[in-house]
Amino acid sequence: MAQLRRGGRRAAGQSLVEFTLMLVFLTVVLMGVLDLGRAYFTYLAVKDAASEGAYFGSAFPQCLDESVALFNPGCAGANNIDFRVRNTSPQGGLVDWSEAVVVTTHQSVSLEAGQVLTVSVSYQYQMITPIVSAIASNGTLTLTARSSAVIIRVPDCTHLTGCE
């Protein structure tokens, strides 16, 4: 009977050590999965932002960013592609939109209905898990999304007051 108690205690101690070792391993794996989940969420936000920019740009292709507002007052404030991309999701989330790179391209120099407008958004995602960040260079993933839309109209901007 004494041998069973002694063996039972030894097995209980062994289980505690095994549990501790597995808990560390499972915690690292779980943190990696959470980090990749955050990366996927960020990619979806970048993809949605590119789609919103292309959608807005199909109706207002002349309104690329705030700098155009100097020549075209109808593109000021929220009425430009860059603003739509950067403000498509709630602020204060996982994505810092001030660091996103937005590039808008179209087929030719002159804007015409029927051309394809493409909005590309790139974002540098910083990994937080050490093991997962070792896979990416410097722990940073470049997430890029592109969305294209056909320009449906180009407003006449010869008269600045009517160009909206």
Give a summary of the structure in a few sentences.
With 164 residues, the protein is of the alpha+beta class.
Strand and helix order: HHEEHE
Physical arrangement of strands within the biggest beta sheet = 1-2-3
The biggest beta sheet reads: 3 strands, antiparallel
Distance linking N and C termini: 91 Å
Number of helices: 3
Low-confidence sequence ranges: none
Helical residues, percent: 40-55%
Q: β content, as a range?
A: 15-25%
Q: Write down how many β-strands occur, each being a DSSP E stretch of 2 or more residues.
A: 3
C-alpha-based Rg, rounded = 26 Å
The whole-number mean of residue pLDDT values reads 83
From the helix content, strand content and strand pairing, which structural class follows? Answer: alpha+beta
Describe it for me?
Helices cover 43% and strands 17% of the residues. By secondary structure, it is of the alpha+beta class. It has one domain. The model has no long low-confidence stretch (mean pLDDT 83).
Task: Record keyword descriptors for this entry.
elongated; alpha+beta; 3 strands; 3 helices; single chain; 164 residues
